[in-house]
Amino acid sequence: MTTTYRLSGVQHVYGERCVVDIAHLSILEGEILGIVGPSGAGKSTLLRLLNFLETPTIGHIEYRGSAYDGDVPLSVRREVTTVFQRPMLLRRSVSANIRIAQRIRGGASGDALIDQWLDRLGLADLTDAPIRTLSAGEAQRVALARALVVEPSVLLLDEPTGNLDPYNVGLIEHMVRSDTDRRGMTTVVVTHDPFQAKRLADRTALMISGRVVEIGETEQFFTDPKQPETRAFLRGDLVY
Predict the structure, then answer these.
(1) CB count, 10 Å around CB of 31?
(2) 115-121 contact pairs (CB < 8 A, 24+)
(3) Measuring CA to CA, how many Å separate 42 from each of 25, 87, 178?
(4) What mean pLDDT comes out for the span 148-166?
(5) How many alpha carbons lie under 13 Å from residue 237 in its C-beta half-sphere?
(6) Are 238 and 38 in contact (CB under 8 A)?
(7) b/e per residue, 189-214, with b = 16+ CB within 10 A?
(8) Is 199 helix (H, G, I), strand (E, B) or coil?
(9) What are phi and psi of 190, to 5 degrees?
(10) pTM of model > 0.85
(11) Residue 158: which of 176, 170, 133, 183 has the closest Cα?
């Protein structure tokens, strides 16, 4: 199967602390990969490496068969977009936030497309609403619409539904799943919630202390984990 990312001997160091230490990891084209693990496991740092925001201290990351060592063309960067737990939105209207993404990232444009995305995410009645008036769930849905409207090849989600109510969680998970399936997009979801990975991911990986302890098909990961650390994590035991 075609790979979107291939990591080989990747280590990333802050000061004297190695926060990511991955010997081998392949992320497959068109899959949703869920990454779970305790706080401080290196999950968010891994996303920063995948988004080319940082370059590994040691090792190589191949993206679609090409290795980049810090000098990543803008055209490649534009293929990857990230949605964070706390969305970084402009102090403008809902529609203006989505429109600026179209302009910057060079995606398809037009009010009709914006209206389509707002409708799909249950935001049609908030088109002209100022961002400051939105709830946390509504703001996160705007951030997701802004990410998806440019039709990225890769969507990276860093705790996208943390602290949201079940209604907003369901809307966001449904949109991520449907757009991944519809366009063959590659999606990586970092989450503290293993049940979210179980609902959403095709494969799931456990990270502890910067290492990928186990990765496998999601059903197998949850019903027949191979590593004792995975079994302990799924039981709810503290894992360091």
Answers:
(1) 19
(2) 117/145, 117/148, 117/149, 118/94, 118/145, 120/145, 120/175, 121/145, 121/171, 121/175
(3) 14, 20, 28
(4) 90
(5) 9
(6) yes
(7) bbbebbebbbebbbbbbbbbbbbbbb
(8) helix
(9) -90, 125
(10) yes
(11) 176
For tokens 């996208």, the residue is 160
State the Rg of the chain over Cα: 18
- Quick: pLDDT tens for 205-230: 999 999 999 999 999 999 999 999 99
pLDDT in the model for residue 116? 82
What is the predicted pLDDT for the residue at 9?
Answer: 96
Closest CA to 5 of 75, 83, 59: 59
How far is the C-alpha of 176 from the C-alpha of 157, rounded, in Å? Answer: 10
> Residue 224: its pLDDT value, please?
96
Average pLDDT in the 90-107 region? 76
Can you tell me the distance from the alpha carbon of 44 to that of 187, in angstroms, rounded to the nearest whole number?
A: 14
List residues bridging with 215 in a β-sheet.
205
Does the pLDDT value for residue 238 go beyond 70? Answer: no
- Mean pLDDT (whole number) for 183-200: 94
Assess contact for 227 and 221: CB atoms under 8 A.
Answer: no
Q: 213 phi and psi, to 5 degrees?
A: -75, -40
Higher pLDDT, 191 or 71: 191
Place of tokens 């490649």: 76
- Cα–Cα distances in angstroms (integers) from residue 13 to residues 8, 59, 89, in the given order: 16, 12, 30
Q: What is the mean pLDDT of residues 185-204?
A: 95
Task: Determine contact, residues 187/155, Cβ cutoff 8 Å.
Answer: yes
